[in-house]
Design goal:
Elements: H1 5-10, E1 14-17, E2 32-38, H2 64-70, E3 77-83, H3 86-97, E4 119-125, H4 131-146
Antiparallel strand pairs: 1-4, 2-3, 2-4
Length: 160
């Protein structure tokens, strides 16, 4: 699989909504997988501080060197996730990025990209499949194409 928005649309992904618009978008209440894309021309820039919320006193920001080591050149997809309820998970993700204290830190590195307004989220419902299995397959395919996971997946392995 190729991880461009066009290829993902052919694979059934829809939405492509900025996080700021998730509250008013028609996001399904079913299980599924989602991808976060970041399509900015030129060099990737990182913010000094994450816009993400602190949780239990933990700072979501990481050093620029770790962010640069995690960056995947040429990839539009910066995070792949799964959800039992897409609407709830994506709204939690957006709330975290808006600075709220949310316990789920999955994908938190996206909130340290400069220009988070350029992030778009697309989703695919998985009514007949386990979203964890679908996510694992997407991650496997991404690794095959790029040699490592998307930028914001596996943040506990920063720089590897």
């Amino acid at each position: 699989m190729i991880f461009t928005r066009r290829a993902l649309e052919r694979a059934g992904f829809v939405g492509w909504t900025p996080f700021a618009d998730l509250r008013s978008s028609i996001c399904p209440i079913t299980a599924g997988v989602y991808v976060v894309t970041y399509d900015v021309e030129g060099d990737t820039r990182f913010a000094d501080k994450s816009s993400g919320g602190w949780f239990k006193g933990r700072n979501p920001s990481v050093p620029e060197g770790a962010l640069a080591a995690n960056w995947v050149d040429g990839a539009e997809v910066v995070y792949i996730g799964k959800a039992d309820v897409l609407r709830r998970r994506l709204r939690e993700f957006a709330a975290f990025g808006a600075g709220k204290s949310v316990g789920h830190w999955g994908g938190r590195l996206v909130w340290q990209l400069a220009g988070v307004a350029d992030l778009r989220v697309g989703w695919k419902e998985t009514p007949n499949d386990n979203p964890g299995v679908v996510e694992a397959e997407l991650l496997r395919q991404f690794r095959l194409n790029y040699g490592k996971p998307p930028f914001a997946n596996d943040p506990h392995r920063l720089g590897r």
